[in-house]
Amino acid sequence: MTVDKLNLQLLTLYVSQYQRHINRVIVVVLVLYLLALSADLIWRIIPEPQPSSQNISEQNGNRPSVKAGSTSSSAILRSLQQLNLFGDAVQVEVQEQDVVQDAPETSLNLVLAGVVASSSPEFGAAIIESKGTQYTYGVGDDIEGTKATLKQVNTDRVIIRNRGRDETLMLEGIDFDNENRNGPRTRDTVQAPVEPRKPNRSKPNKASKLAPVSKTEKPRLSQESIAATQKLRGSPDSFIDFISIAPQRENNTTVGYRVSPGKDPALFNAVGLKRGDVIKQINGLDVTDPSQTIEALGVLRKADTIELTISRKDETLSLFLELPEASDS
Q1: CB 209: neighbour CB atoms within 10 A?
Q2: Do 219 and 174 lie in a common domain?
Q3: What is the largest CA-CA distance in the chain?
Q4: Which helix (H) or strand (E) element contains residue 188?
Q5: Distances (CA, A) of 151 to 54, 66, 172, 181
Q6: What does the DSSP assignment read for 236-291?
Q7: Which of 120, 154, 180 is the last residue of a domain?
């Protein structure tokens, strides 16, 4: 009797000493049991989707036979797939620009001085010289001195519609036969509109590898030049009235645009440009990049100043021009 009481006391002491650990073990066991019970109830409530006969045939044809013990796992996996937890995959269509292939080189006496290609065909523009005068044309515009219209703008050529036939006008300095072996360079395509970035006026664009700017000039404008800048701000397309441009190419790559005075040289002289200067950037935007060139034309409408980064012989210069408000005329 004494021994039984002693054993009972020892057991009670042992239980009280490890009571906390015993409680934890009991709680863990209960939690695991409840989880298993909950999972079983969920799969009983949710009906198992019936796979189509096509899916069954594909699964039977592509997968080796499995043991009966893995049937429940496969059923659970199929059920999760049928629940479509992550939604339906949406395939984004990429807009492709059709490029006219059957367009021989034009015999018209025209010079393609520059292009502004765009992923949106209606926004393309070209600078075409006819009889010594340069004009800026948009898609669908009639070309001065001819019966042709501008149909398409690519990065190295434009397609014009001349008397019912498509013809090619190559960018100045590019040979039609050599380039045509590899096909025309198409415009970049986009899937969605991209917000235009703000031009960086404090330092050159990283995309352009320019030498450090060695000199900065900020000219003062005469009344005649102020009137010219007002016209330029109101109509950026009139840029070529004041400055005649032509692509400057090195190793068959456009590195900038060589400038000379236009038919109205007032602005050209006031800015501080000299014949033969090569424009590299406008307000930090690389003019050899078509998308940035389009943005630069838009900047002319809103900017208070224009910063031209130019190359003059072996020197890199920055020229600043303050733009007054556009004239009402």
Answers
A1: 8
A2: no
A3: 130
A4: none
A5: 50, 63, 18, 22
A6: GGGHHHHEEEEEEEETTEEEEEEEEE-SSTHHHHHHT--TT-EEEEETTEETTSHH
A7: 180
Same domain assignment for residues 221 and 318: yes
The last residue of a domain, from among 160, 180, 200: 180
**Domain tally, the chain:** 3
SS3 call for 126: strand
Examine the domain organization and report whether 174 and 223 are in the same domain.
Answer: no
Whether 264 is covered by a domain: the verdict is yes
Question: Whole-angstrom Cα distance, residue 286 to residue 280?
Answer: 6
Q: How far is CA 250 from the centre of its chain?
A: 26
Q: Which two tokens stand for residue 288?
A: 């050899």
Which are the contacts of 306, defined by CB distance < 8 A and separation ≥ 6? Answer: 282, 283, 299, 300, 320, 321, 323
Half-sphere exposure of 102 (CA within 13 A, CB side): 1
54 falls within a domain: no
Domain of residue 20 covers 1-31
Q: pLDDT at position 320, please? A: 76
Whether residue 51 contacts residue 78, with contact meaning beta carbons closer than 8 Å, is answered with yes
Q: How is residue 184 written in tokens?
A: 């025309």
Q: How far apart are CA 253 and CA 248, in angstroms?
A: 8
pLDDT value, residue 149: 93
297 belongs to a structural domain: yes
Report residue 206 as tokens.
């990283």
Report the CATH number at residue 133: 2.30.30.830
- Cβ atoms of 242 and 232 within 8 Å: the answer is yes
Residues 164 and 242 in one domain: no
Note the pLDDT of residue 210.
43
Instruction: List the structure tokens of 71.
Output: 């049937």
Give the pLDDT confidence score for residue 315 in this predicted structure.
87
Between the alpha carbon of residue 77 and those of residues 38, 49, 72, 85, 315, the distances in Å are 18, 11, 9, 12, 69
The whole-model pTM stands at: 0.39
Q: Which residue has the tokens 């000039």?
A: 217
Q: Is residue 199 one of the residues assigned to a domain?
A: no
Q: Do 219 and 175 belong to one domain?
A: no
The encoded tokens of residue 32 equal: 């695991």
Please list the ranges in the chain whose pLDDT falls under 50: 64-69, 92-96, 186-216, 329
